[in-house]
Amino acid sequence: MAGRRPGQFELIARYFAPLAKSFPGAGGLKSDNAVLPADPRHDLVVKTDTIVEGVHFLPDERPELIAAKALRVCLSDLAAGGASPYAYQLALALPSGWTERWIADFVRGLKADQRRYGIVLCGGDTVATPGPLTVTVTAFGRVAHGRGLTRAGARAGDELWVSGTIGDAALGLLAARGRLASPVLERRYRVPQPRTALGPRLVGIVSAAADVSDGLLADAGHIAEASRLALAIERDRVPLSREARRLVEGNPALWAAVLGGGDDYELVMAVPPRRRKAIREAAGASGIDVCPIGTFTAGKGVQLTAAGRTVRPPRRGYVHF
């Protein structure tokens, strides 16, 4: 019988992290971003993300929304690194059957987000592929030298805070597939909202950060693992939108999607208790709600509680293999 294939993060740690060990800014490939010195005052925070038709977006998705998602998922990671958007590169693998109209609509989506987020295209590649449509973006952000945020750095006693609301995108995907009826949540899945206004304001306040791309439990757990700590999350404190709460109260089994579905692109942050006022002020200046939902402690692993009792989560997050 064939041996077990390594999972996504095991694969990175075993095979690719050794290739980056001589570059300090790679952080052992344990964070989503790399940090490169840019000038005496700034570092570049660099993130590459690939989205694939049928995996990250539905086959019938509008081209302008595909463009927006490809760019915004990278901008979300820059925000988690405390960086302001600067420039990006685009690699586009087009299947047979593409049309110039499709390209024009795709570019229209990019152009709108360039204006929205203050970022410009600086290079890339365009190729043909026999497989599905694939879009890769490498985004560059700027942060004050030595001040970039990573997943590591949380300390025992820090609180876990989260921005916005959780679970809308995972429930929105169910809506997009016809399993729920919620146009509001469906749009939340199709059009992510990276927290670029909040991210740079977190520098000097939070001790670690990540974005919620794979799922709240998974991405908060990445901070705990990188910081070599345990994490306890109170499910009842996880912020839900009015629509998500209505659906979950009607069907508690949907908590699995809310906590493990991903695609929210909110920020999870380790916040020292003395910084509670500062994080609220930063969030207020950004027009984004934040709230505490857990605590980091000495130890290992992620514990979920509900109504004061430990709950075994049926799903921790999305993994590719």
Primary descriptors:
single chain, about 325 residues, alpha+beta, 60s Ribosomal Protein L30, Chain: A, 2 domains, seven-stranded mixed beta sheet, five-stranded mixed beta sheet, 12 strands, about 25% strand
Tally of domains: 2
Instruction: Give the overall shape.
Output: globular
Query: Oligomeric form of this entry?
Result: single chain
Strand tally:
12
Architecture of the largest domain, according to CATH?
Answer: Alpha-Beta Complex
The helicity comes to 25-40%
Averaged pLDDT: 90
Q: Please indicate the percent range of residues in DSSP E strands (runs of 2 or more).
A: 25-35%
Which parts are unreliable, with pLDDT below 50 for 5 consecutive residues or more?
Answer: none
Per DSSP, the total helix count is 9
CATH class of the largest domain: Alpha Beta
Strand arrangement, largest sheet? 7-9-6-10-8-11-12
Q: CATH topology of the largest domain, what is it called?
A: Phosphoribosyl-aminoimidazole Synthetase, Chain A, domain 2
Gap between N and C termini, in Å?
A: 19 Å
| Computed Rg | 19 Å
SSE order, one letter for each helix or strand: HEEHEHEEEHHEHEHHEHEEE
Query: Largest sheet, described in full?
Result: 7 strands, mixed
Can you say what the CATH homologous superfamily of the largest domain is? Answer: PurM-like C-terminal domain
**Computed structural class:** alpha+beta
